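Quick one: Glutamine amidotransferase from Microbacterium marmarense, C-alpha cells please.
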Amino acid sequence: MKPFVLLATRAEDLPADEEYELFLRYTGLAPEQLIRVRLEAGPMPELNLDELSGIFVGGGPFNASDPPDQKSPVQHRVEADFHTVLTEVVARDFPFLGACYGVGTVGAFLGATIDRTYSEPISVVSLSVTDAGAADPLLHDMPSTFGAFVGHKEAISKLPDSATLLVSSATCPVQMFRVGENVYATQFHPELDVEGITTRIHAYAEHGYFAADELELTLSAVRATSVSHPSRILRAFVQRYAR
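--- reply ---
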C-alpha cells in the first residue's frame, strides 16, 4: 500500500506526538503507512502524489484570518507551502482530509470567508449531516446527528459555490465540506478522544481558547458527553483511498 501523509503544525511535542498517535489509532494505519511531516519545524518536503494514497492535515495554532502583519514568518511559510500543495491537490482532485486547520487551509485556498463570526469554545457540539453529506462515502455510516469535539477561534462564515456542505451545526454552519469528489475539510476534530482533548486543553491553556479561571470548567465540558462517531470518518477515508 502507498502511504498516507499527515501534515502537522503543532510546535509542542506532547500534543504533536499524541495527535500522530491518534491518527494512527483511528485510521488503523501502521507508522510506516502514515508519514508525519512537522511543518512548524521546516519547509514542506516535495510530495509526489503519485506515490501517496492520500493526505491528512491535523489541527494547529495558526489562524488564516489573522492580519498578515500579525502572522509569524513560520505561519507565512506554512501558508505558502499549503497553497502550493493544494494547487495540485485540488487540480487533480487528490484524496485530502484536513481536520480543523484543514478549514483554514482549504477554505483560504478557495477564497471562502474566514472570520471569527462562528468561533466555538472547546466543547462538545451536536452536528447535523446535510442531505449531500448523507450521500457522501465518508459519512454513509454516520448517524444524522452526532457529537464532536470543537475548539476554534475562526471558522468559515461563507462557503464558496465550488464547495459542497456536508455537516453543519447551530453554532457553526460550516463544519465539514468537500471540494470535487475527494478533497475534504472539517472544522471539528475527527481524530480526538477525551484523553486527547484533555492533553490539548492543558497544553494550550494560555493560548486564548478560554479564560485563565475556566480550566476545570472546560475539562468538565468535554467530559460531559460521550463522543465516539467522528473517528469513523478517518477510517472511511483510509478504506476508500488506500491503494
